[in-house]
TrEMBL record:
The keyword Cytoplasm does not apply. Residues 438-447 have a biased composition (Basic residues). Keywords: DNA synthesis. Residues 13-22 have a biased composition (Polar residues). This is UmuC domain-containing protein. InterPro entries: DNA/RNA_pol_sf, DNA_pol_Y-fam_lit_finger_sf, DNA_pol_Y-fam_little_finger, IMS_HHH_1, Rev_trsase/Diguanyl_cyclase, UmuC. One of its GO terms (biological process) is error-prone translesion synthesis. Belongs to the DNA polymerase type-Y family. Residues 110-304 form the UmuC domain. Residues 1-44, 438-468 are annotated as: Disordered. The keyword Signal does not apply. GO terms for molecular function: damaged DNA binding; deoxycytidyl transferase activity; DNA-directed DNA polymerase activity.
DNA sequence: TGCGTGTGGTAG
DNA sequence: ATCGCTACCACACGCA
């Protein structure tokens, strides 16, 4: 395979213009300086093009201000680049034809394609003088030797330099090491070109990251074997792989890929390790047990640092030794749990039962920063959370626009409909890094690392979903208050959005996001008693606002709800922000945090507003008939908009009249639902009985 | 038993 | 001084 790849390199060298043309100094030098000098100069040139980012911008959030800090951090963060890669990959999938479902045929042939030292290879591609030097990718420069190495090319690896290492320590091992800055746009473009090449071979591509993918080539192999019935199958497969590697080399402008091949995903991934760098390796089924037996347990996927340690304590180092243990022993005695035990029990025998899932449905969106986060006051914390929330909501909406944009097949009106039908997230979580009391400053990555921290997490199940960044900010600020952490202790924060909802009544909601089974079940349970007491025909007769109805018929469900919530908000003064909906612990914490405010009229109003909005939202999704729904909603809005709650008796009156209007049964003995019922008592005499789906009744 | 929450582990 | 992210899974525990 080495000679094959050499010829691949030679043939592709002249065709680098197919992909990104190399426009900088990399290729044009003809002076007499040494390759090292030229490389260092090039590295400096690339760095200076990055502005303040790479030129010593290591300043904290406190100095820079939240807005600029959040923005700059994400632009420069390699982990953010890796973490958000699937969002960019989605844009490629969106413009492609839908992948036909995979039919598993026997024998199964899976390729695992992995670019060699991807970041470094993008930087040095097409320039052999550069490729012969030890090169790493990280933010540290010639002047400052700190910075964590993200990628080392194979020359540097020969000196023992590894990813994850500090630049200073790497330079001790390899004094001639040259460090290049990140070039994220180029990685993205190169990865896209690589993927397009993969898709030209087969539609069955399962993208893992910007430099790594699985391919199911069973059908490709079957076709090739049929066309050439007397050829050795292994030979046929290796030809396909080598051809693909040549193709990747061409379209990436000279980056090499390795391909591992096996009869399932796991085996092909193991094979790649053997194939690297710049090669192909087929792990045959007959050799699997021997091959795996020699591996360390930590080579198995899902065996990380922690599991390795547990196994090592029992004297288990290799997969051969691991095979002697029973699944039950792994699960119970080693406390790995039944699932992990089953997984590694099967992996060390070459078994992989993971289904082929090329485009899993996204269940959450998050944004977090735990570097350079330094705060002095609560208002700085709030400012930071506002910008983090804006960021995460942005990404959530962008994701939805893209994934559903494809389904709407293009026209602006259809796409608008798709966006409208997305309701947002109803789970809002906050993650906080809190500096440990006596944190050791040496266990910190540079002066702006988070150091030793406790990580805390609080979540809030909202009564209705939101896609409003300010709303998310209010919720996370509330959660932060409930945690009772001093601003000075904060070393990092993250905002996570979950339970992503799409209107199930919307025509375009087919399959992108769905309520989980549990959510759907719970929703039915909550709605059932309402359905039975809801007199639709009476509500219809009660409605006199026919003109408005005509105007409103063009609105989507969600627009209706938004309009209602908007109305609701206008009826109150600025609410206290407290995370007391649907979360008993958060409720208690908030009450403890500020007992006086928690029972206040404002706070109570906020509670009522959320509950009411939930109530209307449920109504929206439960009534199928547009006209009926709109009429009922108009009645409700009319009531709510005119209502100002100042006293408990007003609240009760409001609810009673609202229920009357809508022909709901008003019940004093609120015993409606359900398993996880929560009673929230204010300092007044009203009880709201609710579960985490929202209000289910009203008591005295 | 089933559900919701918080924590920990893992990959890339 | 040098950018410690993101998404998912699994589990323990408390509660009803």
């Amino acid at each position: 395979s080495a000679s094959a790849s050499a010829s691949a390199s030679a043939s592709a060298q002249s065709k680098t213009h197919i992909s990104t043309p190399v426009t900088d100094k990399r290729q044009r030098d003809s002076d007499s300086r040494s390759p090292e000098e030229k490389a260092k100069e090039l590295a400096e040139e690339l760095r200076s093009g990055l502005g303040p980012l790479a030129q010593g911008w290591g300043r904290s959030s406190h100095e820079v201000g939240a807005e600029k800090f959040v923005d700059t951090f994400f632009k420069a963060s390699r982990l953010h680049f890796i973490g958000t890669w699937k969002e960019r990959y989605d844009t490629l999938l969106d413009v492609m034809d839908d992948t036909p479902p995979l039919i598993e045929i026997n024998p199964r042939w899976i390729f695992h394609v992995d670019m060699d030292a991807f970041f470094a290879s993008v930087t040095t591609r097409g320039v052999p003088e550069l490729q012969r030097l030890p090169v790493v990718i990280c933010w540290g420069s010639e002047k400052s030797n700190s910075g964590e190495i993200s990628c080392a090319n194979y020359v540097a690896r020969k000196s023992g330099v590894k990813a994850g290492e500090w630049l200073s320590s790497a330079k001790e091992k390899c004094p001639t090491l040259i460090s290049f800055p990140f070039e994220f746009e180029k990685y993205t473009e190169t990865a896209m070109n690589m993927y397009k090449a993969l898709f030209r071979l087969t539609p069955h591509v399962l993208g893992l990251s910007c430099d790594e993918a699985y391919l199911d080539v069973s059908q490709v192999v079957a076709d090739a074997a049929l066309a050439n019935p007397f050829a050795d199958v292994n030979h046929v497969v290796s030809e396909i792989a080598e051809k693909l590697r040549r193709e990747i080399f061409q379209v990436t402008g000279g980056c090499t890929a390795s391909i591992g091949c096996g009869s399932n995903q796991f085996l092909s991934r193991l094979a790649t390790k053997q194939a690297k760098p710049d090669g192909y390796f087929h792990l045959e089924d007959s050799k699997v047990l021997d091959f795996i037996g020699k591996l360390n347990v930590s080579d198995l996927p899902s065996v990380g640092w922690s599991t390795t340690k547990i196994l090592k304590e029992k004297g288990i180092q290799t997969c051969f030794e691991l095979r002697k243990l029973s699944q039950k022993f792994l699960a119970q005695d080693l406390k790995l749990g039944p699932k992990t035990a089953k997984k590694i029990f099967e992996y060390c025998r070459g078994i992989d039962t993971r289904p082929w899932n090329p485009r899993p449905i996204r269940k959450s969106v998050s944004a977090q920063i735990s570097w350079g986060v330094r705060m002095k006051t609560d208002s700085e914390v709030e400012d930071f959370l506002k910008h983090l929330s804006a960021k995460v909501v942005d990404r959530m909406l962008a994701m939805f626009k893209k994934t559903s944009g494809n389904k709407a097949k293009g026209t602006a009106a259809e796409e608008a409909n798709v966006i409208r039908s997305f309701h947002g997230a109803s789970l809002v979580s906050l993650k906080v890094w809190r500096a440990k009391k006596n944190a050791n400053p040496n266990k910190r990555k540079g002066s702006l690392g988070h150091g030793q921290c406790d990580r805390l997490h609080r979540s809030l199940t909202r009564s209705f979903p939101t896609k409003d960044p300010e709303e998310v900010a209010r919720n996370t600020i509330g959660l932060f208050k409930a945690l009772k952490i001093e601003a000075e202790e904060v070393r990092g924060m993250g905002v996570i959005l979950g339970n992503l909802h799409e209107n199930k009544n919307s025509a375009s909601s087919t399959s992108v996001r769905k309520l989980s089974t549990n959510q759907a079940k719970r929703r039915r349970t909550v709605l059932e008693p309402f359905r039975n007491t809801f007199n639709l025909s009476a509500a219809l007769q009660a409605s006199t606002l026919t003109k408005d109805i005509e105007n409103l018929q063009t609105l989507s469900h969600k627009e209706m709800v938004d309009a209602i919530i908007d109305q609701l908000r206008k009826t109150k003064t600025e609410p206290e922000v407290l995370p007391f909906l649907g979360n008993k612990k958060a409720c208690e914490a908030a009450a403890f945090c500020n007992g006086e405010t928690c029972g206040s009229v404002h706070c109570f109003q906020k509670h009522m507003l959320d509950c009411t909005a939930q109530f209307l939202y449920e109504m929206c999704v439960s009534i199928d008939d547009d006209l009926v729904r709109i009429r009922c909603l108009i009645q409700a809005v009319k009531q709510i908009a005119n209502c100002i709650w100042e006293k408990d008796s007003d609240l009760n009156k409001y609810w009673q009249s609202c229920c009357d209007q809508l022909k709901f049964q008003y019940r004093e003995d609120v015993n409606v639902c359900s398993s996880s019922q929560i009673s929230y008592s204010s300092s007044r005499n009203s009880d709201i009985i609710m579960n985490s789906s929202g209000i289910v009744g009203l008591g005295k």
